[in-house]
Write the structure tokens for this entry.
Amino acid sequence: LKGTLKAARAPSAQSVGRLELGLLWERCRVRGSIAMAIQLADYEVLKKALDDADSLGLSVELEHDLCDELRDQEQRRLEPISRQTSARSRTA
């Protein structure tokens, strides 16, 4: 990323090519992070990767929907646990 920023400051033909390569690399890295987060079904990791994707201007609307769905599933999974814990605290 440092090389990409350096290339952006000195716009020669070679530096423009480096800039494009750096941006392509970063986009691929972010797409890989998104794929890994989806594979792990980890909405927190996915949310961070989607924030990175948004800052790069990538189109990730469907991935945002999936992230919301994963978050909702996690909340539903944890909800009965919190109900059981609060019921125990009332009886104690």
